[in-house]
Amino acid sequence: MQKGTPRSTQAQLGALFAVRDEPGITQQQLARTLGLRESAVTGLVGRLTAADLVDKRANPREHRAVVLELTGDGAAALDAAQPEVDRFNAEARTLLGEDGFTQAAVAMRALAHWESP
Description:
- The chain has helices at 10-21, 27-34, 38-50, 72-112, and strands at residues 25-26, 54-58, 66-70.
- It is mainly α.
- A hairpin with a 7-residue loop joins strand 2 and strand 3.
């Protein structure tokens, strides 16, 4: 997602939503939230900070870690993406019905946080 560009990858969009919903999230927590390896999140966060969508600052509790916060441009990018997210959700609800949509959302969340034995 380049600054001023309305398109983004799913991972970038997911990262922006996660940072917005959990200000001060660490990269490690973000990796768990997104179901990605920490090495992938390092690159992802690098791209988001280079695009001025996310800021990194020192973690007040862990001197070696950083916390992430959404910038004004990051919030604007989410605002710009919201109509498309809403359209997708409305189409999915129409296709699946409210109960089916809810069940699918629960299943996807479980899969995103599933860890193999």
